[in-house]
User: Which sequence fits this backbone?
């Protein structure tokens, strides 16, 4: 089969857009060695090194069949169908891939064991991480060059977090799988990344965007922006830190990033690490105040990892602030997200050197019963047994009152403009809570963040 022949065949697949015809025909031609069918051993040779071996077996099950029904070759239409179903398929189409890949007939109504579904998802997560490394994308390189790796344990944790809604039953009905897939946007993003890579191995250049109207409805096409989007953000702010001690692994970063509002998924800016900047609450707030939305991660002395997404600018205040895009999360021993309940607005709190109010950083709950509390006496905190601010919340640390050995904060996106950059005039009479505390000012200077002593000041009145 020549180049033109494969393109003509792809054009006959009415479910392919013009761009997809280009992708699929080139991939089919490479895998089939210009013949009309792909042999299983040829596809295994092409894709085997690109993914987790379990996913390769699942793909082969889908394309070539199971047992007595297994064929030695696959034609272009089936090959194209797998691509479309996995990159932009409906719930029914993705469910078909899952069921057939696990060796079941799509027409069967039998329940599927949870353990098989979890292993299927784990193979996708493992393949995603492997392809990130093989592709060596710009985003991946910014983390990998700083010692950020992927661990098998966290691949398993990420897969478990994506399937935990199904774990209540040993066997899962087709209807339960449909509901789960409908809400599994992260799994859909992982599938998109994996299969766009597999089908683009033969031509890393981007397909030309056709000016012709697609034969597929616009709502069912994969845009170039979606195609290129990765759940791995760019890592910024470590250029002057040659020996950064990596706390997060790539699975944990993807887990957090996938749950952030989309506008904050592109870039993480390093703000604070207790191993680099020392164990000082004054230094901590000096580096995070007026830095925009942020992610805070804590590891307690029992190895539990947890934290929160703070959508609002951190600022010193006697009151809670923030909005309902805020969430808490756990990373170890399991990965979970606790979104806002809407019950109250107690999302963020930060105070220091006040005699009548608690001094520390909080997310959720109420004073003395916070979802996450970092005390101004550095190294201490608590995570309450319950928290009405966040849905599904469970105590995140090993014990309610904990000591932590590591704290890390990342800013999201570009930092907000300073008052000077906005052209605002900061009143000479404005005072800071740090003005009367020499120790705090000294610690901020030692941290090299004296500019933030200005950031701690109250905004001038309108």
Assistant:
């Amino acid at each position: 089969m020549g180049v033109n022949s494969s393109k003509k065949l792809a054009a006959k697949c009415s479910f392919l857009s013009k761009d997809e015809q280009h992708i699929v025909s080139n991939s089919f031609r490479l895998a089939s060695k210009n013949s009309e069918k792909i042999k299983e051993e040829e596809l295994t040779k092409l894709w085997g090194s690109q993914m987790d071996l379990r996913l390769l077996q699942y793909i082969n099950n889908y394309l070539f069949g199971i047992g007595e029904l297994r064929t030695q070759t696959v034609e272009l239409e089936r090959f194209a169908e797998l691509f479309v179903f996995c990159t932009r398929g409906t719930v029914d189409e993705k469910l078909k891939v899952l069921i057939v890949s696990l060796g079941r007939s799509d027409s069967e109504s039998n329940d599927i064991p949870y353990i098989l579904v979890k292993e299927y998802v784990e193979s996708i997560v493992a393949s995603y991480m492997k392809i990130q490394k093989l592709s060596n994308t710009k985003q991946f390189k910014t983390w990998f060059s700083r010692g950020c790796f992927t661990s098998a344990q966290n691949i398993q944790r990420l897969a478990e977090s994506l399937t935990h809604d199904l774990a209540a039953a040993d066997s899962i009905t087709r209807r339960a799988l449909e509901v789960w897939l409908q809400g599994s946007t992260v799994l859909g993003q992982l599938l998109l990344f994996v299969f766009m890579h597999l089908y683009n191995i033969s031509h890393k250049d981007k397909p030309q965007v056709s000016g012709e109207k697609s034969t597929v409805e616009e709502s069912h096409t994969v845009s170039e922006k979606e195609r290129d989007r990765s759940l791995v953000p760019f890592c910024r702010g470590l250029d002057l830190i040659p020996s950064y001690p990596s706390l997060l692994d790539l699975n944990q970063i993807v887990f957090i990033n996938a749950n952030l509002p989309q506008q904050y998924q592109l870039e993480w800016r390093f703000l604070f690490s207790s191993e680099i900047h020392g164990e000082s609450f004054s230094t901590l707030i000096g580096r995070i105040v007026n830095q925009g939305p942020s992610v805070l991660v804590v590891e307690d002395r029992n190895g539990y990892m947890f934290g929160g997404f703070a959508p609002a600018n951190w600022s010193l205040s006697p009151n809670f602030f923030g909005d309902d895009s805020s969430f808490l999360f756990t990373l170890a021993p399991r990965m979970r997200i606790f979104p806002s309940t809407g019950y109250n607005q107690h999302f963020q709190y930060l105070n220091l050197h006040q005699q009548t109010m608690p001094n520390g950083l909080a997310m959720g709950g109420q004073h003395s019963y916070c979802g996450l509390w970092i005390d101004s006496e550095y190294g201490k905190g608590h995570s309450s047994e319950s928290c009405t601010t966040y849905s599904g919340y469970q105590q995140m640390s090993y014990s309610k009152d904990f000591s932590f050995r590591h704290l890390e904060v990342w800013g999201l996106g570009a930092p907000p403009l300073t008052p000077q950059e906005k052209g605002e005039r900061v009143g000479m009479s404005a005072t800071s809570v740090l003005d009367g505390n020499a120790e705090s000012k000294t610690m901020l200077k030692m941290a090299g963040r004296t500019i933030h002593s200005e950031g701690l000041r109250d905004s001038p009145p309108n």
